[in-house]
Amino acid sequence: MRLMEKIYEMAKANKQRIVLPEGEEERTIVAAQKIYEQGLATVILIGNKERIAAKARELDADLTGIEIIDPETSENLQKYTTAFYELRKNKGMTKEKAEIIVKDPLYFGTMMVKLDDAEGMVSGAIHTTGDLLRPGLQIIKTAPGVSVVSSFFIMMVPGSTYGEEGMLLFSDCAVNPNPTAEQLASIAIATADTAKLLCKIDPKVAMLSFSTMGSAESELVTKVRTGTELAKQMRPDLAIDGELQLDAAIVKKVADLKAPDSNVAGKANVLIFPDLQSGNIGYKLVQRFAKAEAIGPICQGFAKPINDLSRGCSEEDIVNVVALTSVQAIIKKEN
Ligand code: ACO
Question: Does residue 255 belong to any structural domain of this protein?
């Protein structure tokens, strides 16, 4: 069974409440109907009820079974405002500002997740990555033991034998512009856990660089080497190795030559990029040149799952990310 089919099965078997703050947006409305019809999740749309109903009529979409919450009239507005103010008062938040900010659908949705009125949130069809991440970082924060929120892509490379028969996880390609060695270690560990728990594969994590095991020296390489050491110390149970060039990480012949003693080289299925420039460019190269399917970016490391969409997303993309978010919520409860 393909990975997304398995994700759909898991989501359907244990339906989660997922809030979509861009409730007045057309693709979101159509996706909400599809999610309901497929029984993937209990969807909550945020927005003005009349405007959403009018849009649904225009789109010929049936919103039966979908809850719509307008922050302006919500009975929970005061509860969320007070909780948000308490969370952020040490960062200069005032009660007056909190009253305005929480009415913003992204903040309102994030507070719903924080206070367990939803298990996860998906947004980004009309907002930027930063617009979504900021309330998440301020309110949901990182899971215990995780120092940094990051993201991963599941790359499906057709006809390839690299990684797990063409499936590899790439990280971080969307969140941290220039992670420190400590943050790289945290990203590597989070992605290994994602590979294990979400993708059900045995992770072999390569810490990528332009150097393999000391073949070059630079402060850029030192960062990756230190990150590798820290990750190994923190989680000796995981197969993590570096620093490795991309070919040494995934091609057995090159690995035999350049890193013969590595337990990861030549068979890596999780690739950790040293910074956001290389990660973002790297996944797009594979997506375009190898015609790979790139599922993501999916966030990891949040205490509760919230996820971003591309502004060019389709209705199907929204459905897929809602299913993935549901499964992340299920995994969090189980572990
Ligand atoms: N993990 C955990 N906490 C974080 C992280 C992180 N990665 N980054 C910031 N924070 C925390 C800060 O500590 C701070 O907490 P506090 O307010 O409680 O003290 C809070 O989040 C806000 O931090 P800022 O530094 O003010 O946040 P910033 O405005 O820099 O935004 C963001 C953070 C949005 C993640 C930023 O780094 C960013 O824009 N990253 C790149 C996103 C992007 O454009 N990606 C590429 C496009 S996606 C694609 O192509 C697929």
Answer: yes
Claim to verify: residue 160 and residue 264 sit in the same structural domain: yes
Residues 112 and 173 in one domain: no
Cβ–ligand 1 distance for 138 under 6 Å, the answer: yes
Instruction: Tell whether ligand 1 has an atom less than 6 A from the beta carbon of residue 180.
Output: no
Supply φ then ψ for residue 86, to 5 degrees: -60, -40
- Token pair of 121 as six digits: 């949130």
- Whether ligand 1 lies within 6 angstroms of the CB of 149 is answered as yes
Is 298 inside a domain boundary? no
Are residues 157 and 277 both part of a single domain?
yes
Q: Can you tell me the distance from the alpha carbon of 241 to that of 132, in angstroms, rounded to the nearest whole number?
A: 32
Can you give the pTM of this predicted structure?
A: 0.94
133 lines ligand 1 (CB under 6 A): yes
Report ipTM (2 d.p.).
Answer: 0.93
Mutate to test the pocket of ligand 1, among 131, 137, 151 (most ligand atoms within 8 A of CB): 137
Taking alpha carbons only, the member of 111, 46, 123 closest to residue 85 is 111
Number of structural domains found in the chain: 2
Q: What is the pLDDT of residues 35-78, one digit of tens each?
A: 999 999 999 999 999 999 999 999 999 999 999 999 999 999 99
Give distance in angstroms: CA of 220 to centre of ligand 1: 22
Contact 296, 153 (CB under 8 A): yes
CB-ligand 1 contact for 31 (6 Å cutoff) = no
Parent domain of 265? 150-293
How long a stretch of residues is the chain?
A: 335
**pLDDT (tens digit, 9 = 90+) per residue, 228-280?**
999 999 999 999 999 999 999 999 999 999 999 999 999 999 999 999 999 99
